[in-house]
Amino acid sequence: MASKKFMDALNLLIEEKGIEKDVFLEMLKESIAKAYKKNYMNSEANVRVEINEKTGKFRLFEIRTVVDDLQDEDLEVSLDEAHEINSNYKVGDIIETEADVDHIGRLAAIQTKQLFRQKIRETEKETLYNEFADKKDDIITGVVERVEPKFAIINIGKTGAFLGSNQQIPGERLTEGQHVKVYVSDVDRGTKGTHIVVSRTDPHFVKRLFELEVPEVYEGTVEIKSVSREPGERSKVAVYTQDENIDPIGSCVGPKGSRVKNVVDELNGEMIDIIEWSSDPVVFISHALSPSTVMSVTINEEEHSALVIVPDDQLSLAIGKRGQNARLAVRLTGWKIDIKSFSEANELGLVVEKQEEAPVDDDFQEEFAQEMMETSQEANGANEAVEETEEAESLQENVHQDDYDDEDDYDYEDDDYSKYDEDIDYDEYDKYYDED
């Protein structure tokens, strides 16, 4: 063990394991000291090891305290014996005596080797955990190493990550050797080592993909406020910016839809609705139910619920296939949402004569006044134009928001809303995903 060949082998091991040389040498010293104490001293004894990095030779020193009354030879040395070494020693001083390492037997050498391997494994676990703990909640690219019916193993460098079947996008088929992006959802340091769990269905996966594709999102100019998702089918993403010169939706869609298309391709064709977030919960809920048109929203602060009224011909679109659009809106906004057509709401007495109007800005008011002046000059159409305008004003959007986490309170799959699925061509609203 005390040779240059040993140090050469140790350097190769250091390079292979990726552990710093000083850490390796400290592990080796600790292993030698522990094996020596176990075979030649008691476990409480103090030992110091020196290793010459050039020659590979090591020296071992037994550390003992000078005492008047000797009780334990492994820990103490009598004052008389200490004076034989140096007459200046006094009680309480520490003496280091070099041990004869030539007599160390094969058993001690084997134990040193075993302890050293154990230390390497422990250090590897710690190094691996520290490396991937910083990557939690982030995206990494790996290679599919193994595919089983219930899981897949993704090679992410120094280890494999576990991708359960419930964390794989429905409908996608992974193949060995395939490069794939995954979201690091958990890094667990257990007794058997570091366990890394990854996902392709987590809503945060969508957010991180947009950060990779959209510079404005990565830089923080455009912020993704919330994401709701049904993996493999559709996601809704709420975006916002404080910069009035930037279109947050346009930034995420990209030129000719290139940016959102890259995200859709990574998600195995999953459709994505990008809507603008608003601090006004009324507006936010209206946006969340896109692509449908919302006439009005009435909220109940105490129950954290919202009653949304839509035109009769928009009810099917607002609810979506099997209630999907409504469910995604509930998760995106955090509100219980009850959607009713105008006719149904009117029959139930839920439509009041005067709905609360959404705020109208000054520019709109000026444009509106000018339009009315021009219209009033038309002899036959003046009254009709005014009536149509008043009707439009009475149907302004009103919406509200609060925190709500249980989207299952409104199940749009098993109720009467399913009858609306056949009334509309939903693919019409996905045209911007088509390739040019």
Walk me through this protein's architecture.
- Helix content is 36%, strand content 23%.
- It is built from 14 helices and 15 strands.
- The chain has helices at residues 4-17, 21-40, 79-85, 106-133, 203-213, 215-219, 248-253, 258-266, 281-288, 315-319, 324-333, 342-347, 362-376, 382-394; strands at residues 46-51, 58-67, 76-78, 94-98, 139-147, 151-155, 160-164, 179-190, 193-199, 222-230, 234-241, 271-276, 296-300, 305-310, 336-341.
- The strands form 4 sheets. The chain has a 5-stranded antiparallel sheet with strand order 7-6-5-8-9.
- The longest helix is centred in the N-terminal third of the chain and has 28 residues, at 106-133.
- The chain is elongated, with a radius of gyration of 36 Å.
- The model is unreliable at 353-361 and 375-436 (pLDDT under 50).
Envelope shape: elongated
Q: In which order are the strands of the major sheet placed?
A: 7-6-5-8-9
User: What kind of assembly state do the chains in view correspond to?
Assistant: single chain
Number of strands: 15
